[in-house]
Amino acid sequence: KDALHFILTGGTIDSFYDGAIDTVKPYSKSILPSYIKNLKLYQKTIFTQVCMKDSRNINTKDRQKIAQVISRSPQEKFIITHGTYTMPDTARFIEAHLKRKKPKIVFTGSMVPLAAFSNSDAAFNLGYSIAKISHLRPGVYVCMNGRIFKPLEIQKLIGEGRFASIFQE
User: Fold this and answer.
1) Helix 87-97 crosses helix 60-72 at what angle (to 10 degrees)?
2) What DSSP element (H or E) covers 108?
3) What confidence tens digit (pLDDT) does each residue in 123-166 have?
4) DSSP 88
5) Span 30-37, mean pLDDT?
6) Which of 70, 79, 134, 156 is the most buried (most CB within 10 A)?
7) 150-155: long-range contacts at Cβ-Cβ below 8 A with a sequence spacing of 24 or more?
8) What is the bridge-based pairing of β-strands 77-81 and 45-53?
9) Under a CB-based contact definition with an 8 Å cutoff, are residues 110 and 82 in contact?
10) What is the DSSP string of 20-68?
11) pLDDT at residue 169 in the model
12) Which DSSP state fits 89?
C-alpha cells in the first residue's frame, strides 16, 4: 500500500516530435517508467499503461479502464500522466465515478514532451506531483504549473500554455 502507482495514458508528456505530421505523437510504449526509475526514488513505484493516446482521443472506455485500475489496486497514491487537452475531463470523470474514497489521485502532464526538449515542463510537473501527493488529503487533483487544482475548477489556457482556476482572475 505504500507504493506510488503511476497510471500512464500518453499525451504530450510521453510523446515525440514527428516531422512527417509536424506535431507530437505518443510513443507506443511509455518512456516514463525508465525515467522515474532513474530518479532513484526511495518510494517504491508501480506502473500501469492504460493507453498511449493524444488526450483528444481519450474516450469513456479509457476513463473506465483508469477507474478500474484504481479500484483494483491496493495502493493509496496514484499519479496519472495524461494529455492536457482533456485532462480536466478525465479528472472530473474519475472524481465522479470512483468508488474508493481513500486514495490520493494526481493528474499531471506537460505542454512539451519530456524527451529531447530542454525547455520541457514535464520533469518539473512530475517532480511537483511526486513531492505533493504525500501531503494531500484523499481526493482527485491536477498538478500543473506549480499549482494544485481540483477537477471542477481547472481550465486550460491554450494561449498562455498553462492551467488556471476558473475562480481566480
Assistant:
1) 50
2) strand 104-108
3) 999 999 999 999 999 999 999 999 999 999 999 999 999 999 99
4) H
5) 97
6) 79
7) 151/88, 151/91, 151/92, 151/94, 151/95, 152/92, 152/95, 154/87, 154/88, 154/91, 155/88
8) unpaired
9) no
10) TTTEEEE-SS-SHHHHHHHTT-SS-EEEEEEEEE-GGG--HHHHHHHHH
11) 57
12) H
SS3 130: helix
Locate 138 and state its grid cell: 484523499
pTM score of the predicted model: 0.96
Place of cell 493509496: 76
Distant-in-sequence contacts of 150-156, Cβ < 8 A, 24+ apart: 151/88, 151/91, 151/92, 151/94, 151/95, 152/92, 152/95, 154/87, 154/88, 154/91, 155/88, 156/84, 156/85, 156/87, 156/88
The answer to whether the Cα torsion of 46, 52, 58, 59 is positive or negative is: negative
Mean of per-residue pLDDT scores for the chain: 95
Q: Name the 3-class secondary structure at 76.
A: coil
Q: Is the pLDDT of residue 8 over 70?
A: yes
CB half-sphere exposure, 50, CA atoms < 13 A: 27
H or E segment at 91? helix 87-97
Q: Tell me the residue type at 78.
A: F
